[in-house]
Amino acid sequence: MFPSRRTELWESSWTMFLLAKGTFLQMEDDLVIAFQLLLCVLEFFTKRFTPSLLQSPYKSAVSSSTLSPPTRTSRRNQGKAKPRPPEMDVQLLETLCKESDCSVDEVKNVYQTTFCAFLDSVGLSGLQGLPPMETLSKQYEELYYKNKDFDARLFLVDDETLSPNKTEVSKVEMTPRKNLSGDDVAIPVPQTPIRAAMNSIQQLRVDLTSASDQPSSNLLVYYKNCTVDPTEEIRKRVEELGQVFIKRFAQAVGQHCEGLGRKRFNLGAQLYYKVMESMLKSEEKRLSVQNFSKLLNNAAFHTSLLACALEVVMATYVGNSGASDSVETDLCFPWILDVFRLPAFDFYKVIESFIKAEPTLKHDMMKHLEQCEHVIMESLAWKADSPLFDLLKQSREEGPGEQAEPPATLNQPLHHNHTAADLYLSPVRPSRQPPATEAEPPTPGTKALRSNSLSLFYKKLYRMAYLRLKTLFSHLLTSHPELEPIIWTLLQHTLQNEYELMRDRHLDQLIMSAMYAICKVKNVDLRFKTIVTAYKEMPNTNQETFKRVLIREGQYDSIIVFYNLVFMQKLKTNILQYSSPRPPPLSPIPRIPCSPYKNSPLRVPGSNNVYVSPLKSSRMSPVVMTPRSRSVFTSLINKFQKINEMVSSTDWSLKRSLGGGSAPKPLKRLRFDMDGQDEADGSKSSGESTLIQKLAEMSKFPTTSVHAYCLN
């Protein structure tokens, strides 16, 4: 094929893809659906090529019946003839999907709904040949001017504003390709976001191969053993929630994507029933009972469990698996809570049990669910209509001895032995009830026992709050270590006794306010601008947290206004006590456990014997290496030797700078207002020492990797 012809086809197919995506996908940042639409476009163009111009395996995949001769129409009926619907080359589409690790059923669904509708809308349904580039380009220009988005055709001309860093490109180009035929060293090529998402989706489908989107025979036995059979209620609830999900999915992605929404919901239903059965088996083993009537008839439990299963599916497709650079879309958490009108506090109860009950859950998905839990504890659970406030009110009415979680328990280990039954059923603490039965409601006229779900929530909340306070403190007040326990005591007192300050607000707003208040009464010079500057450098933070804080109903302002008009007014008496000769007693420092969601392969139980044997030099021996792999291996050895020499010869004063630095300088100009403008003219510090930067330049590795090598 002539180069000019190849370029024209490339430009035409890319422009058609942009036109289809912009016309029929309302949420264009869903990589998976966009990629499936791209495969449809490639099928449309590829089957119109001469087979001799195609490479394997596409040459053999193109069916001989792909293009039938056009039907001749009389001139009289030519204007009345309806365009023939586009014919899908199933074999070619399956080949494209196989080469891309993409679901054939989902791509077929996109083809039959979205892509066919697109071809109809642009008048290409009955086209037998290739569409003219001029027509596609003109239609895309109209769409471009209508949406005011950037012109994605710039990718065709290698526009500098869209090109990656040349250094990074050269690194990828120099990466050796995998050679399966010889003994060459296999160095994997870095994954693209879409490739990573496809791999995760494929793994999820493999894990759910034996699962069904209907209750299994084992689950039906559990249903029948209940005092009140929940079978019909569960079926109706899943059906109703499925209809709601599919409707909202189509509204978010595109009206022709109902079929994709149904397929994703079916995957979520499979995971929902699988995890439910695993939970019940675990409860049966723990309690030696088979009647779980109260749990299986609890609507909040089922809605939360189904929502959690769907969140795993949606996060897998979106590619949002806990990484900081994940693409955020309209379908990201907490979208599912809004779809099901599910309180975040109810969803939080199922997360830990869900992770324990699903052993095939990938580590990055555990991290994602853990991040969802953090978002709930920091803000979502504190929405004005949250059931959390009802539990707190009930706890306060029971008297001062019935706190949400007594401070005395902070330095005790946090046990992760809670189950879904513990958290969704009656508010009973495990120590006050027989362990061999489902939790029973309190007898009328007796005092209600402390909420199990509230107790665990506050235990986790205290520990997360302290860790965030400690992180911010380490950036600002390392020269005043005596202030950390005092700030923590004020923060803990606020969360325990003045929890109304959290209503429709964010945990970090109270942390920053408590830090500023204690520094004020202790005559330590720390400005709010300095606190905000350090806060912005922390991970997973948002400027809205300090720029838009609720002052009173319907009124928002900056955090300094919140401090002056709300926080200080509510806690003035308590804050001033810390400047008196007899300050309040300090709260215990929380005991920080390892995350229950982490299963690091580096941790080896002490009872196990570990054997270390010498590395066998079969593939990496210079004798059996190819010239190319020997060159790569030798280059790496030389670089590591230079790193070791630099670390050994560097001044200790420079090495000590790796452990920390001075407090960040306040922004020269920072206006706390509601228009979202941050008029800061100071540059951000990279946070890396000269040593690390030099090592990174020498080794050509990411800086984080250099940190790891220096520590070893």
Automatic annotation (TrEMBL):
This is Retinoblastoma-associated protein. One of its GO terms (biological process) is regulation of transcription by RNA polymerase II. It holds the Pfam family RB_A. One of its GO terms (cellular component) is Rb-E2F complex. Residues 61-87, 427-447 are annotated as: Disordered. One of its GO terms (molecular function) is RNA polymerase II transcription regulatory region sequence-specific DNA binding. Residues 73-83 have a biased composition (Basic residues). Keywords: Cell cycle, Chromatin regulator, Cytoplasm, DNA-binding, Nucleus, Phosphoprotein, Repressor, Transcription, Transcription regulation. CDD domains: CYCLIN_RB (cd20599). SUPFAM superfamilies: Cyclin-like. InterPro entries: Cyclin-like_sf, RB_A, RB_B, RB_C, RB_fam. Residues 575-708 form the Retinoblastoma-associated protein C-terminal domain. Residues 63-72 have a biased composition (Low complexity). The keyword DNA damage does not apply. It is found in: Cytoplasm; Nucleus. It comes from Cyprinus carpio.
